[in-house]
Amino acid sequence: MTLPIDSRELRRAFGQFGTGVTIVTTREPDGTPRGFTANSFSSVSLDPPLVLVCIAKSAASAGIFSNAPCFAVNVLAEDQKEASNVFATQRPDKFESVDWQESSNGIPLITGTLASFECNRFSIVEAGDHVILIGQVEAFSVREGRPLLYYRGAYLTLGFEAPLIHAASRQAETVLGGIFERDGAVLFEIDSASGTISLPSIGKNGDIITHSQLIKSLATFGIRANVDFVYAVFEEEVPGRVSIYYRGHADGETRTAMAFIPFDDIDLDRIIDPACRSMLTRYIGEARQKSFAVYMGNETEGVIRPVG
Ligand SMILES: Cc1cc2nc3c(=O)[nH]c(=O)nc-3n(C[C@H](O)[C@H](O)[C@H](O)COP(=O)(O)O)c2cc1C
Q: What is the pTM of this model?
């Protein structure tokens, strides 16, 4: 006897498969451009060159795409999250929010993508609540850059989130923190009762947390922060906890629980966490020399990888 499939769990299981993100475009017979965000894209065959993408029968444009003689698949770059969000709605003005141009056969091609595939319809396969559009690639373009990724229902970008994927895949508790600098001073949280200082950080069990949540949480304290790159990844003494620290810049008026402390005035003994203490010691040394490296390892041993 097979157990009934729990569709919520199935959706969660499908979400374990990380993908890129595309926008699939075509034109209605009257010329109106149409497009939708899709992560169901896959390459299928080199000879003949075939690709596929699945469209939900419930999508407003399902009928248009099922009947379209040609369509294009635009592979999004990491800075095209906004376009992805817009094309995942039913807004009638989607194409006004992006730059695009026409392919030789009149299909809209979105500007700034990593690749685009202009396809003629090869075949259409009905598959449950979706229709599989199989296209034969007639022309394509390719550009260097980092992709926009989609994993477990959230966007990821390689530059910042690769360590998070690693941590999440190990079901580790993740702490996300930052060394935020302003004019030779580092932002600290200050515990006036104990006199200890710590780097701003957030952490949640199980969920994927991203650097944007860290930035948002600082904004609630009146701090405008931005993140430049991952500075250190380390496992702490607490089993299963991975700490990821970004390096960035911050500005704004600090309130009582926070302060920018100049490098020379940072009293490392007031930092309780030994891993953070050694990371900061390294940071201050490197900041003085203006060269940065990414640290990967545990508290006591690891490798330092220069940031490319
Ligand atoms: C990252 C992401 C991936 C998506 N992938 C697909 C997909 O592969 N197939 C699909 O039918 N809808 C997918 N969607 C949802 C559609 O983009 C959404 O239903 C959209 O409204 C369809 O456009 P339309 O209603 O104008 O046809 C995805 C949405 C997001 C955010």
A: 0.66
